[in-house]
Write a structure and sequence with these properties.
The protein is mainly beta. Helices cover about 0% and strands about 45% of the residues. Its cofactor is Zn(2+).
């Protein structure tokens, strides 16, 4: 692995801030110099303005697992019953969560009642991708699938199926390689696909990395400007970086045992923000909090949804 010294990982949130149960989907909004993320079981979208440490929360009527933004700042949210357009209001007293509802855009056919969307983001052309999963992970049910929601507002048929716990979405800087993982303990694999940027179609699926050979489960991911793929190794308290050839070249320890997803942000996109999960039992003081690390590389701007919400 690379001889580059490992940087310090620090907690971002103010002292006394309650941890997330399942912190996911961090998204940096350069226009606001703010980081957004979700707490899935708490049904919340959270914003943190880095310069002022001002924190704002929005309460949704159902679980929200992933978010993206359109050019106007409207949220495209992958939730428990489908995809929603959510307008984040700013009318609550400071420190109080604002209750918001969304307009349902689309929903796939859920084969089981206990399903929801999970990891999701936009490709380089602004199409939104997200996968579904059965929420009872112990069932190990491969009923999940990956879907594409295009700029016309059309939800595709399943593009990749037979997934247990879909995660790890990301694209190479030129958009021609797509990454996807299944973080269930029975899978623990990351796949790469050739990606047709005109058609929005992944092809030629192959194993990019198998975490049975390393540690942890491959959860949420980010791609840096060098084309390297950063993955949160859930259950191992690690960030792992793989080269475009699938070689592990760096690992960084995170104070939380369950890092969930990472995203580049900050004014120069040189900070890697990491959300985490707080276990129901045996949690440490760090589990469920937000972390930041400067890994010595920069990221790429998170694409916005190309359609109108």
């Amino acid at each position: 692995m690379s001889g580059m010294a490992n940087p310090r990982v620090e907690r971002v949130e103010a002292a006394g801030q309650a941890p997330a149960s399942v912190g996911e989907s961090p998204v940096w909004r350069a226009a606001e110099q703010a980081l957004y993320w979700v707490d899935i079981p708490a049904q919340k979208i959270v914003r943190l303005r880095l310069e002022t440490a001002e924190r704002t929360e929005w309460q949704l009527p159902e679980k929200v697992a992933c978010i993206a933004f359109d050019h106007r700042g409207t949220v495209l949210a992958g939730c428990e019953t489908g995809l929603f357009a959510v307008t984040l209001t700013e009318d609550a007293p400071r420190g109080e969560a604002m209750t918001v509802t969304g307009r349902k855009l689309a929903a796939p056919h859920f084969a089981f009642d206990d399903m929801r969307f999970n990891d999701g983001r936009c490709d380089r052309q602004g199409r939104f991708w997200s996968g579904t999963m059965v929420q009872d992970m112990a069932a190990a049910n491969p009923a999940g699938a990956l879907y594409r929601f295009d700029e016309r507002g059309v939800l595709s048929a399943p593009v990749v199926d037979a997934l247990i716990t879909q995660n790890g979405l990301g694209w190479s800087p030129d958009g021609t390689t797509m990454y996807l993982s299944d973080s269930h303990p029975l899978r623990r694999q990351i796949w790469a696909f050739d990606y047709d940027i005109e058609a929005g179609e992944p092809r030629n699926r192959r194993v990019f990395a198998d975490l049975h050979d390393y540690a942890g489960r491959p959860d949420g991911a980010a791609v840096d400007a060098d084309g390297c793929y950063w993955i949160c190794a859930n259950d191992a308290g690690l960030l792992l970086r793989f080269t475009p050839q699938g070689k592990l070249d760096r690992q960084i320890a995170v104070p939380a045992v369950k890092p969930a997803m990472c995203a580049f942000g900050g004014r120069d996109l040189d900070t890697l923000f990491v959300t985490s999960i707080r276990p129901a039992t045996g949690a440490s003081e760090h589990d469920g909090h937000l972390f930041a690390v400067r890994p010595g590389v920069t990221g790429l701007p998170e694409p916005e949804y190309a359609g109108e919400l």
